[in-house]
Amino acid sequence: MASTRPNQLFRNKSAKIAAIPMIVTALFVFVGGTAWTIVYSFTSSGLLPRLKWVGLDQYERLWDTRKWLVSIENLAIYGLSMLVLVFVIGFILAALLDQKIRFENTIRTVILYPYALSFVVTGLVWQWILNPEFGVQNIVRGWGWETFTFDPLYNAEIAIFGILIAGLWQGSGLVMVLMLAGLRGIDQDVWKAARVDGIPAWKTYLFIVIPMMRPVFITTLVLVVTGIVKIYDLIVAQTGGGPGIATEVPAKYVYDMMFQANNLGQGFAASTMMLVTVALVVIPWAFLEFGGSKNRG
Predict the structure, then answer these.
(1) Strand partners, 43
(2) Would the CA dihedral through 90, 93, 98, 100 be positive or negative?
(3) Angle CA 272–250–84, to nearest 5
(4) To 5 degrees, how large is the angle CA 262–CA 276–CA 47?
(5) What is the three-class DSSP state of 214?
């Protein structure tokens, strides 16, 4: 057994040697950049980074800032709503397309197309659609409903839900495609056995199909959550964080601190908190996907 390990180590030497520059670059850029950010989050860096230690002062100041607290609240509202709705919408669309309907390729392309657009384009499109002067509200009022009101981006209490609408429009297509791939991977014998046993379709999906699609759901969850945490372009293009600070999010807070307020230390502290959030999702996923399979093997 021990004699085979050196042989396995030296297999595909050319490929492993060719991968060295990429590995070194990844370690230097990602790992090194992350470590650098965390270290300087404990300093009083302003316009330029400087190693003047202030301990946890930046983090204390961060959690005492109303703008940061509002951004966390908005991220929680947007994130939870997005997670639930994008999975429900994506799975329902995938289940409908899995019925081998006519024009499936065309419908799939149309639904997935928004995902090919940048968040900036999506934000600008929905800024126009939700504008009360010439968007949905204006169109409906033109049909005779003069009292109809639909201006979420101009109402501070519900502005984050205007962002949610645009996010769902863009993200549902990706989830649909991933779910459809998972559904197409289910053995047809499962469906035949369920029909023979007289199990309703919704129960087959809920108690048989969805548990079998666990890896697809976990991978989709990681992709969606990481996208939620780093949301920035959509906010800037659609509302700029307004009205007031009603649609502020952590990523925009980091940008504002680092490039407008010239407070690198505060920006580094905020980005470190974002890193912790992503790590809380990615690490359990990696353990479930790789550690769990290794233990089972």
Answers:
(1) 53
(2) negative
(3) 110
(4) 10
(5) helix
Ramachandran assignment for 48, one of left (phi > 0), alpha (psi -120 to 50 degrees), beta (any other): beta
Position 1 scores a pLDDT of 47
Measure the CA–CA gap between 254 and 41, rounded to whole angstroms.
12
pTM recorded for the entire structure: 0.85
Burial letters 103-127, b for 16+ CB under 10 A, else e: eeeeebeebbebbeeebeebbbbbb
Residue pointed to by tokens 């946890």: 56
- Domains annotated for the chain, with CATH where assigned, are 1-40 (no CATH), 58-296 (1.10.3720.10)
R_g over Cα of the chain: 24
In angstroms, the CA 92 to CA 176 distance is 8
Number of Cβ within a 10 Å radius of residue 93: 21
Tokens of 15: 């490929």
Mean pLDDT value across residues 175-190: 92
Residues constituting the chain: 297
Assigned token pair, 124: 């600008």
Position 100 confidence tier, pLDDT thresholds 50, 70, 90: confident
First to last CA, the chain: 17
SS3 43: strand
pLDDT over 70 (residue 142): yes
